[in-house]
Amino acid sequence: MKNDHLLEINNLNSGYGAIQVLWDINLELKSKEIVCIIGANGAGKSTLLKNIVGMVIPFKGEIKYFNQNITNLPAPERIKRGIGFAPEGRHLFFGLTVEDNLLMGAFQRKYSKKEILSDLDFVYNLFKPLKGYRKKFAGNLSGGEQQMCAIGRALMSKPTLLIIDELSLGLAPVVVDDLIETIVKLRDKEGITILIVEQDVQVALDVADRGYVLESGHSVMQDSSDKLAKNKHIKTAYLGIA
Amino acid sequence: MGLGLQMFVNALLLGGLYALMGIGFSLQWGISGIINLSYGAMVLLGSYLSLIIFNMFHIDPFISMFVTGAILFLLGAFIYRFTLQPLLKGGIVFTLIVTFAIRLIIENIILLVWSADYRTIRVSYAGSNFQFLGAFVPLTKFLTFIIAGVIIYLTYQFMMNTKIGKGIQAVALDKEGAMAVGVDDQKMYLINFALGTALGGVTGTLWATIYSFSPHVMDVIIGRVFIIAILGGLGNIWGAAAGGLLLAFVETSGAIFIGSHWQEAIGLVIMVLVLLLRPHGLIGKKFFG
């Protein structure tokens, strides 16, 4: 079964110890798509992402990346193969400078000094404010700048697939607009496939081509963003429009 | 002047050893999250291993320290992988019990093999000494101080400038963040724990060139490293080094001005004061964010 899917998840069941969080999840990502996963708190969105990056190993089911089974592959190996991850809550290294945080993002890469400098330049061009704060401790950044730094750190691993958990959480609307613009640019200019988890459904449907809706661990719906935005259930349950 | 300088030199020479000893324990506690109650036993194992090597092959402890360091590194890695790592989910109490059990095992092996008698390693130049600005400096103490300083510096360079060192820093700063950039967290904890054990073992070897040792010394050591690690701030190399020097100065001057039977009490009083006034340690920066 050859296909053009970058990522394919079949019948994924997962959770923590005795607690099952996800039931029979199916998901596909085509190359250069922006896809969002939406759902309420506790729906299992972050758990799904953790399964994709290898921080949680599923009970059952299969995860395929470039048509290769990566279900049980350790997390560092997946990052080496091009899955970049900006975790929920950013998890920056507060005791390090912005630049050291970005450099840490290249932990799994073998690189020359020249390469790394041009990659740093790329991130600084993408997120202009970071350049001025290169030598500043990451803990002293504002929320928006921290999110830039977290995405920048994930980009330093040279991902084919960039996964962002909670893009807009706690950020001002202006900042979110900028981030959305940047994400679309990353796809259009760099050809990076992007998967985001987002609680703000309006934001999610703005940025993504397609979306999956998770409810209490089940995937209840998937469609293009336009269609999801017009869907009655989505309108009442998530967008607050009658 | 004479007494003051001599006291300063004595404290400094002792402080180097305390610093090295404290760093191993502090790294294990602060970064791997394991309060290693067997640390004293591991230090002493370093002493006894170099004693065997000295007696059997007549190899100088200052050379055999590389061997004891390597053996203790492997022992630390083994202990972490097979006893501590599987129990981490159980929380800190489990690791306390396990490390206490390991202490008892090592203690009894030492008692069985070497008995409870005091042992010494007497190198041929043990009595040599020189004068420095009128202060009396024993050669072996001077050597242990220099070597301790070099090892501390190398440990720091390892943490700052190698890939594994950076990975260890990353897990210490933010475990989830480290995993997000592809750091294998358990591997880093293991290497860090083994490194701490190796530093302990080397301290034991250096210790053996100056002082006589018996199994009961492990209690003295564990008491000291607790104070040193807390003084400096957990997981902080320079902090532990400063803590070691400070403790040595406090003990040495306390022994002279207050009385040597108060030596240990003074160290503990300082520790309590630091816990009350600067709970993150004297040098403890916001290393843990």
Q: Major sheet of chain A: order of its strands?
A: 6-7-8-3-9-10
Q: Helical element count of chain B?
A: 11
Radius of gyration of chain B: 19 Å
Uncertain runs of chain B: none
Give average pLDDT of chain A, whole number. 93
What's the β-strand tally of chain B?
A: 2
Described by strand count, sense and barrel closure, the largest sheet of chain A is: 6 strands, mixed
Helix content of chain B: over 70%
Q: Total strand count of chain A, please?
A: 10
Query: What does the overall shape of chain B look like?
Result: globular
| Principal-axis shape of chain A | globular
> In percent terms, what proportion of residues of chain B is strand?
under 5%
Rg of chain A, alpha carbons: 18 Å
Q: SSE order of chain A in H/E notation?
A: EEEHEEHEHHHHEHEHEEHH
What's the total helix number of chain A?
10
**Count of the domains of chain B:** 1
Produce a short descriptive summary.
The complex is a heterodimer of chains A (242) and B (289). Chain A is α/β, with parallel strands linked by helices. Chain A is built from ten helices and ten strands.
Describe the structure.
Chain A is built from 10 helices and 10 strands. With 242 residues, chain A is α/β, with parallel strands linked by helices. Chain A has helices spanning 45-53, 75-80, 98-105, 113-126, 128-132, 143-155, 173-190, 201-207, 225-230, 232-239; strands at residues 5-16, 19-30, 34-39, 60-65, 68-69, 83-86, 161-165, 193-198, 210-215, 218-224. The N and C termini of chain A lie far apart (43 Å). Helix content of chain A is 39%, strand content 27%. A 6-stranded mixed beta sheet of chain A has the order 6-7-8-3-9-10, with helices on both faces. Chain B has one domain (11-121, 195-289). In chain B, strands 1-2 form a two-stranded antiparallel ribbon. By secondary structure, chain B is mainly α. Helix content of chain B is 73%, strand content 3%. In chain B, helix 1 packs across helix 9 (217-232) and helix 10 crosses helix 11 (263-277). Chain B is globular and about 55 Å long. The model of chain B has no long low-confidence stretch (mean pLDDT 92). At the A-B interface, helix 2 of A face helix 6 and helix 7 of B.
